[in-house]
Write a structure and sequence with these properties.
With 78 residues, the protein is mainly α. The chain has a domain of 30 residues. The chain contains 3 helices and no strands. The longest helix is centred in the last third of the chain and has 14 residues. It starts with 17 loop residues before the first helix and ends in a 5-residue tail after the last helix.
């Protein structure tokens, strides 16, 4: 059984302002198409994307201390 493999992708022309084009060009990584840039920019990050975000924050210890203080006063834990 043969599977049909499309040989060319459909394309659409869109009009964007020059300043928006420059931003898109700046966001473009080496070897990436504009379609891939747009697709990447529209992706919703997962929670793992934010893992370690506060690691270098100088206020991290104070934040952890405040969280522990709030937790110790909680009557019910879920």
């Amino acid at each position: 059984m043969l599977t049909h493999i499309p040989l060319c992708m459909a394309s659409k022309n869109i009009a964007i302002r020059e300043d928006v084009y420059k931003k898109l060009l700046e966001a473009k990584k080496e070897g990436e198409s504009f379609s891939e840039v747009i697709e990447r920019l529209f992706e919703k990050p997962s929670l793992t994307h934010f893992s370690g975000v506060l690691a270098d924050n100088p206020h991290l210890k104070a934040i952890e201390h405040d969280i522990e203080k709030i937790r110790s006063k909680a009557v019910i834990r879920i």
